[in-house]
Amino acid sequence: MSSSTKEATRSGEFDLIARFFAPLAAPGALGLRDDAALVTPSPGCELVVTSDTVIAGVHFREDDAADLIAKKALRVNLSDLAAKGAKPIGFLHALTLNRGVTDAWLELYAQGLKQDILAYGAPLLGGDTTMSPGPVTITITALGEVPAGAALLRSGAKPGDTVYVTGTIGDSALGLACLAGDLLLPRAERAALTDRYHLPRPRCAAGVALRGIAGAALDISDGLVADLGHMAAASNAAIAIDRDAVPLSAVARKAVTNDPRLWEKILAGGDDYEIAFTAPDGVDAGRAATDVPLTAIGKVTAGAGVTVMANGVPVVLASRGYRHR
Amino acid sequence: MSSSTKEATRSGEFDLIARFFAPLAAPGALGLRDDAALVTPSPGCELVVTSDTVIAGVHFREDDAADLIAKKALRVNLSDLAAKGAKPIGFLHALTLNRGVTDAWLELYAQGLKQDILAYGAPLLGGDTTMSPGPVTITITALGEVPAGAALLRSGAKPGDTVYVTGTIGDSALGLACLAGDLLLPRAERAALTDRYHLPRPRCAAGVALRGIAGAALDISDGLVADLGHMAAASNAAIAIDRDAVPLSAVARKAVTNDPRLWEKILAGGDDYEIAFTAPDGVDAGRAATDVPLTAIGKVTAGAGVTVMANGVPVVLASRGYRHR
Questions:
Q1: Are residues B84 and B24 both part of a single domain?
Q2: Same structural domain, B245 and B300
Q3: Given A105, A121, A147, which residue is the final one in a domain?
Q4: What angle do CA A32, A34, A38 make, to 5 degrees?
Q5: CA distance A210 to chain B (A)
Q6: A42-81 residues touching B, CB cutoff 8 A
C-alpha cells in the first residue's frame, strides 16, 4: 500500500523478503514474489485455520533470543492445529518490525523459523513485512487439514467422560517465574523450566492420534484451570480434577514440594501448550498411540465450571489463569 | 498466552470478541469460542491465501473513520484474491489495539467490517485480539478458492501480449494528495477522489471473469508502473505502456489537464486496487464479461523493465511507485 506517512528504514520490504524469507518459502508460495500463495488441501479434508499474534514486551520478552521468538510464534499456532487433530499444511507470516531491529536479529529470527519449518513440516506460504513505530509484532496464520468431520472441538465433553492431559503441566509458568526472579532454583533446574517457557512443544502427533478417541480437546495456553473452564462452558458441563493427579516434571514436583504456593502457578499460569481432552466413559484413552504420556486428571460431570480437589477438599485459586486482555 | 508483562486494559479479550466480533462470525468459526476455525473448500479447487498488515500512522491515517479502516484492511486482501481469479472463502482477523481505542471506535470498526462481510460474501472465520503499547495494527489473512490450475499469476506475460487495466488509475493517489493538502479541488471532486483512497473496490467479479483469458495478473497497490515492473520481472519480459491510454476518471482527467505534474502521482502513487493483466496476442480481453471497464494500455515485449511513452517519447518518472519499506 502507498501512504504519505511511511516510515523510512534501512532495508526495503522486498530486500528483506528476498534476503531472509524467500529462501524459506514453499513451492506454492510462488517464491514470495506474488501477493498470494496457492495451496491444494488433500481430498476429503477440512481445513483448520488459526491466527495468533505475539507482541514484544507483551507476549515475549524483548531480550528473548530472536530464534526462540520465531519458534514460539509459530509453535503456539501449531499447538492450536494439534488440539484440533489437524496436520499442518503451512503458515502465513505477518512480521511488523521497527527501526531498532538489526540484520543480525533478523538473520537469527529467520534461522529459528527455518529450523521449525523443517521440524514440523509446516512450510512458509506467504505473508507481509511492515515497519511500525511500535513494538515488534508477529501474526502467524497456520493452516492445517483433518479428514472431514474428524476435527476435535472444545464442545464435546459429556458427563461421565474422563479428562486427560498430555505431557506435564506448569513447567512453563515456573520457567517464567524463574526469568522474572520470583523463583530461585539451581542452574540446571532453572534451564529445564525456562526452556519450556521459550519453546512450546506443540503436540502435533498426539493430536492426530486422538482423532476418533477424544470427545473434546483444546491446547492449554491460558492455564489448565482456565482452559478446562472454556471446555466446560463450550460443552455445557462441569469438570472436576484431582490436583494430585496433574502430571508434573521432576523439577516442578521438587519445586512445589518445597513451596506449595507454586501450585497456583502450575494450575493457572498457562503457556503449557499441552492438549487437554476428554474421552468417553469406557474408552481407555491412556492407551492411545501417542508420542507423549497421557494422564487422567479428572472427570466431566453435570453442571458448570471447574473444581480442583486436593486431599478430598476443593482448592481455591486466587487467579483462574491468564485472562486475555 | 500468558506473560508477566501483560498490559492491563478496560476490556478482556473475551469480552471484546464476544461483544464486537462473535456476531460477525461464520458457522465454521465456531462462534469464535474455539482456537481455530473449520473450512471446507469446494472439491477440485485450489486455495489461495494472502496476508496483509495495515498500521495506524503508516498505512492509514490515525483519524480515518474506524469503519473505513476496517473496510480498507479487508478489501486490500480481497483485492489480492481477485487478482488471482479467486472467489473469497473468508478471512482471519488479527487486531492489535491499544489503550487509546474506545468502545465507540470498536463499534464503528465492527460495523464497517460487517457491512463488507455481507457485501463481499467473505465471512469472518477467526482471529486474535491483542493489546499493545504501539499503534493499532490489523493483519487480515484472506482465503479464497479457484478451480485447480486456473489461478492467475504474475509470471504469465509473454511478448506480443496486450496489457490491460480494470477501472481507472490514479484516483486514490490524488485523493491522498487532497487529504495531505497537496492538491486543492472543489469539494465534490475532492470527495470523489478521497473516497477512492479510503475505499478500494476489489475487482472480485472481474478477477473471476478473467480466468482462462488473462495470461498474467496482479492488483495495483504499489503504483501502476511499479506493479507492471513486478509483472515484467516475474515474467522475464518488458512492458511498454502508452501514458495517454491509461484510463482516468473525469475528475482525475480534469486535474491532470490543469497540472500535468500530477501524472507522476497517477502512474506511481498506488493504492489503486485495480487489476492489471495481460491477454495473449489475438485475444480481445476487452470483451470479457466483467462488471468494470477494461482498457488496453500497452504491450509486452522482449527485454526487461517498464517503459512509459507519451506522444512518442519515453516519460521519466521521478519515483517508480511506492517501494515497500
A1: yes
A2: yes
A3: A147
A4: 85
A5: 17
A6: 43, 46-55, 57-61, 76, 80-81
* A259 close contact with B: CB closer than 8 A: no
- B171, B301: one domain: yes
**If residue B146 lies in a helix (H) or strand (E), which one and from where to where?**
strand B137-147
User: pLDDT category, A32, cuts 50, 70, 90?
Assistant: low
Instruction: Return the half-sphere exposure (C-beta side, CA atoms, 13 A cut-off) of residue B66.
Output: 15
**How far apart are alpha carbons A76 and A60 in whole angstroms?**
12
Give the span between the Cα atoms of A64 and B215, in whole angstroms.
46
**B33-42, B209-218, B312-321, range with the lowest pLDDT:** B312-321
Give which of A78, A133, A104 is closest to A20, Cα–Cα. Answer: A104
The verdict on a CB contact (< 8 Å) between A6 and B139 is no
> Are B280 and B146 in contact, with CB atoms under 8 Å apart?
no
User: How many contacts does A have with B, using Cβ atoms within 8 A?
Assistant: 288
What are the phi and psi torsion angles at A218 (to 5°)? Answer: -160, 165
The reply to whether B221 touches chain A by the CB within 8 Å rule is yes
Domain count, chain A: 2
3-state SS class at A173: helix
Domain check: are A173 and A292 in the same one?
Answer: yes
Using the predicted structure, report yes or no on whether residue A84 has a pLDDT greater than 60: yes
User: Which among A9, A57, A153 has CB closest to B5?
Assistant: A57
Alpha-carbon torsion, ordered B10, B14, B20, B25, to 10 deg: 170
Q: Can you give the CATH number for the domain in which A68 is found?
A: 3.30.1330.10
Mean pLDDT of A295-324: 84
Does a structural domain hold residue B324? no
Same domain, A90 and A166: no
- Which chain A residues have a beta carbon less than 8 Å from that of B46? 38-40
Minimal C-alpha gap between B310 and chain A (Å): 25
**Total-model pTM:** 0.89
The mean pLDDT of chain A is 89
At A320, the amino acid letter reads R
Q: DSSP readout, A38-58? A: EE-PPTTEEEEEEEEEEEBTT
Domain end (from A132, A147, A162): A147
Print the domain residue range for B215.
154-314
The residue count of chain B comes to: 325
Q: Per-residue pLDDT for A193 more than 70?
A: yes
Distance from the Cα of residue B245 to its chain's centroid: 22
